[in-house]
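Obj.: predict assembly geometry.
Materials: sequence records (below).
Method: joint structure prediction, all chains together.
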Amino acid sequence: MLGLGRPPSTAGRGGGEGVRTRDHLANVRTFLAWTRVGLALVGLGYVVDRFDLLEQSAHRRALSSHPESRALGLAMVVLGGVVCLGGFARFLAGRRMIERASFRPRPSLDAALTVVAVLAGGIFLGYLIHVGG
Amino acid sequence: MSEDEGVIPHPGRPPTAPPAQGSTESTRAREHLANERTMLAWTRTSLTLIGLGFVVARFGLFLRALEQPPTASPPHLSGSALIGIALIVAGMVAAAASLVRFFRARRQIEEGCYRAEYWPEVLLLAMIAPLGVALAVYLAVNG
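Observations (raw structure tokens):
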């Protein structure tokens, strides 16, 4: 459980113990990089959401003039959580593939994130133009 | 310098052919460096968590200060302050866990038997997941 037991003697991708160790450590770093991307999305979503409230206070309005920014912020927070979970699933799959010596890179998650990032950038740009700077 | 300098081994390469299994001297160094990079990645992640916690806690406070009409600040902590503090604590716990992980991996590399423990990653996700849900619920409810 949790990788605390001894590794099987056949572990690794055939490059020896050192290669297996570095593969695992690289896998951990990739997971952490995904987690940071997720946390950055959560932070950005939070700031987008709260800035709308700030604007409300500044203009002394009871209601938000841009309710869509609240939805945008919340969507980004949820997306950040999904990215963290996806990164963890990828991490566990990577561990299994390293132990079985059959690492198959699956770029689907990376491609999905890039598409989402480009879309989010477009939505942001549209939002900023709509709000008027 | 002559071509024949067989007495001096090539820097960074063991003088004899490396065995297929087990760590050689040069892979041992690279394993330790990989372990160090992993430690630094953990540090960046915990600093991200602490920074996010700071923004969440402070922004909530800032908004409360701007409230019209100004309300008397209640003695209890607001939701954003609680989530922010919890995020900072999660960052500190992640940093401590990563230090333990670093020294355990260091010893395992020296022993030539890396165990690929993943309790720090599980711990990190177990801390982030409820906080992420709490933040999303807070944003959805507290408008």
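Conclusions so far: The CA atoms of residues 115 and 140 of chain B lie 42 Å apart.
To do: check interface contacts against the pulldown list.
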